[in-house]
Every structure is written in C-alpha cells, then in structure tokens.
C-alpha cells in the first residue's frame, strides 16, 4: 500500500475514532465485543476507543510495506540482556532442540522445530519496527504466516485470543484473532535474508507489523490459543499495561 493510501486510512481513522467517542463509544465498543483486556487500567477508556475504532475501520488494512532501498543499514537490536544458560545451550546447538509449542484451544497441539516452521510457505515483507521509546528500523522480515500455523493445529472456533511467550521470563503478549489471522502477522525466522540474529530474537519471533515493537516478541517458544485472557499474568493481556502502556499498540 502506498503512502497516499496510508494517509487516507489514517484520516478516516481519526474521524472514525471521534465518531465512536461521540456516540457513547464505550457502549458501542461493548456491543461489538471490542473491549481490550486492559480496559480497566488508567488509560483504559482511551485504549478501548482506539482499539474499537481501529477494529471497526481498519480490520483488513495492511501495514505499510517499503521499497528495498528504504531498508535500514543496521537493524537496531533492543534489549541486550545477557541470555540465560538455557538459551546459550540452545544457541550452541544451533537451535536444533528449540521448540515452538502451540497449545490451548486447538485440535492438534504441536511442538514445532525451527525446521518445521521453515517448511511452511513463507511470506517476506519490508516493514517498519517502531519502539515506543522512539527509535525504529525498516527490514525485510520472512516467516510463516501465523494463520497457516493456526490452520495446521486446528483452532477451536470459540477461541478469541493468541497468547505468546518468550523463553525470556516476563516477555509475553497477546493479540486478537483479527491480528492473528492478518496476512502480515508472521512467525519470523529470517531477517534481511539471514537467520534471525541472536539480538533480534533468534531463532523465532512473532512479527506483528500493525502494532508497536513490543508486540513482536523475541525468542518465542510457546503460543496458547484461548477464549479468555483472565488467567494469563494479571489478566491485562500482557505486562505492558502494568507499566502504563496500552495492550493494543496499533500504528
Ligand atoms: N523476548 C523479548 N522480546 C521483545 C523484547 C525483549 O526485550 N525481549 N523487546 C520488545 C520491544 S520493547 C521492542 S521495541 C522490540 C525490539 O525489537 P528489536 O530488538 O528487533 O529492535 O522487541 C520486543 N520484543
Ligand atoms: Mo520497545
């Protein structure tokens, strides 16, 4: 999608958000089943209106994709915490023993190896990763569309959320089914044509280009399909709302 189209989408969105707010948006959002898990937090009402407006107006829009000459020279790797001993063992073994388990409300719970994920038909896209702290980069991401993985394990039609975890403690996130099924949401294994570097989330990471960087969980090893987020962490959909950031980080 070109820049022009993006602008139009954004303008429609702002108008739409104002409209939703003006119409007693919270009630409308409730009627549509569009209440985010952190709606009870400090910024919960604003977060609900943003989420509901985006879902009603931009459900199927695509994150902007860039040209090859716009790719950043150096992808910025955030979070340089020293990897755990367990992670270092995986790294030393070339991630041959790494498993991404997909469980919860699925017909066929599965533990995928990195090779299994690479066997799915892949999608490549040049997108922008933006951190809430202000920096960003553009890179080519390649991976298996999450949607295809979900089809393979067979998702219960009553499921509403995808919750995903890192081997790093305290890093987990969740997205709704619209984002999970969106064609640009990938289980990424490759960046700029090479296996994901350790600092960038090796061997597998979630890539959600329609939302801020914190939704793109690195070192991902578990996905749970659920109909309720209450039982995960403090029930707010991720750790971010505890620190004052919104669960929904649409851009
Ligand atoms: N496991 C894990 N995932 C993570 C993080 C992290 O520290 N650990 N940081 C998040 C944040 S806040 C951002 S902005 C992006 C940064 O991605 P990058 O390292 O590719 O720049 O990863 C997200 N995923
Ligand atoms: Mo971030």
What would a concise description of this structure say?
With 251 residues, this protein is of the alpha+beta class.
Strand content: 15-25%
Instruction: Please identify, by name, the CATH architecture of the largest domain.
Output: Alpha-Beta Complex
Largest sheet: 5 strands, mixed
Number of domains: 2
The CATH topology of the largest domain turns out to be Sulfite Oxidase, Chain A, domain 2
Helix content: 25-40%
Q: Shape from CA axes?
A: globular
The total beta strand count reads 10
Q: CATH superfamily assignment of the largest domain?
A: Oxidoreductase, molybdopterin-binding domain
- Any ligands, ions or cofactors bound here, and which? ligand MTE, molybdenum atom
Q: Uncertain regions: pLDDT < 50 for 5+ in a row? A: 1-20
Helix segment tally = 7
Describe the structure.
The structure is a single chain. The protein folds into two domains: 1-61; 64-243, Oxidoreductase, molybdopterin-binding domain (Sulfite Oxidase, Chain A, domain 2, Alpha-Beta Complex), CATH 3.90.420.10. The model is unreliable at 1-20 (pLDDT under 50). The longest helix is centred in the N-terminal third of the chain and has 20 residues, at 3-22. A hairpin with a 2-residue loop joins β7 and β8. The protein starts with a helix and ends in a 25-residue tail after the last strand. α1 (3-22) crosses α2 (25-31). The protein has helices at residues 3-22, 25-31, 44-58, 85-92, 114-119, 146-153, 177-181; strands spanning 100-104, 110-112, 123-130, 136-145, 161-166, 172-176, 186-191, 194-195, 205-207, 220-226. The strands form two sheets. Strands 2-1-10-5-6 form a five-stranded mixed sheet. Strands 3, 4, 7, 8 and 9 form a five-stranded antiparallel sheet that branches. It has seven helices and ten strands. The protein is globular and about 55 Å long. It has 251 residues and is an alpha+beta fold. The structure holds the ligand Nc1nc2c(c(=O)[nH]1)N[C@H]1C(S)=C(S)[C@@H](COP(=O)(O)O)O[C@H]1N2 and molybdenum atom (MO). The site of the ligand Nc1nc2c(c(=O)[nH]1)N[C@H]1C(S)=C(S)[C@@H](COP(=O)(O)O)O[C@H]1N2 has 16 residues, from loops.
